[in-house]
Amino acid sequence: MFDELCGDDVDIHQFAQAVTDHHAQRGYSRRVVDIGDPAGMARSATSRSTEARSCFQILYGQKIMIVPGEQTLTIRLGSIKRALQLMRGGSPVFVLHPRCTMLRKGFQGRYQYRRIKIRGAQERYEDTPDKNVYSHPHDALQYVGGRVFGGVLRARDTTPRPLVAPERPLDPVMGY
Question: How many structural domains comprise the chain?
Answer without folding.
Answer: 1
